[in-house]
Amino acid sequence: MLDVAVIEEPAAAEASLDPIRRRILAALAEPGSAAALAARLGLARQKVNYHLKELERHGLVELAEERRKGNVTERVYRATAASYVISPAVLAAVSPDPTRSPDQLSARWLLALGSRLVQEVGTLLTGAARAQRRVASFGIDAEVRFASAADRTAFADGLAEAVATLVARYHDESAPGGRSHRVVVGLHQIPAAATATAAPVPDTDTETAPDPGPGQENAR
């Protein structure tokens, strides 16, 4: 079983989003038969069998083993991954394009960068899984709490300068056999947990934030 599988086919994405199939996928973190799943999820065995076949057809579950029980052969399934990510490639025609109106202060542009990251890394993971190889990658996840908007601005400026310095030091356009890598660095507020009475409110630098224009939702 993979840690993460990337769903790149629209039909597979549609199959994974069905409420019953999502429950079956979650339950199949541990192998189980249709009968066991039906009992655990409170569903008819015929219905579970139908959904299992659809999930198997799209590569989301696989046969783990077959067991003989008297005159019956019981098929035991498992999910092909512990978790799944739907690639933006599924919506290729309408997926965000970070080359369109790049703006470091735009949350929408940051989202477009994240979308491209998922798509590109997903493609690498899919190819590496077929070749039974690992993907060379690196990631940093950190949390920082700023005392003021001015501190946030200074941090962003320093971070941009540090990344630009490193890129200039190591980038070699003419290196024979060199491999191009993508560097993505983002900064965003951690959303507050939504409550039953109020939606999370993003941080702004003024008491009353005007409706932002294109690319200005995170203006300093």
Brief summary:
The protein has 6 helices and 5 strands, in the order E-H-H-E-H-H-E-E-E-H-H. It is α+β, with helices and mostly antiparallel strands and about 220 residues long. The chain starts with a strand and ends in a 50-residue tail after the last helix.
Q: Outline the low-pLDDT stretches.
A: 194-198, 206-220
**What would you call the structural class?**
alpha+beta
Task: Output the strand order for the largest sheet.
Answer: 2-4-3
**Helix segment tally:** 6
What's the main sheet like?
3 strands, antiparallel
The amount of beta strand, in percent, is 5-15%
Envelope shape: elongated
| Sequence of secondary-structure elements | EHHEHHEEEHH
Distance between the termini: 45 Å
Instruction: State mean pLDDT (0 to 100 scale).
Output: 85
User: Strand tally, please?
Assistant: 5
Roughly what percent helix?
Answer: 25-40%
What is the radius of gyration computed over CA atoms, rounded to a whole number of angstroms?
23 Å
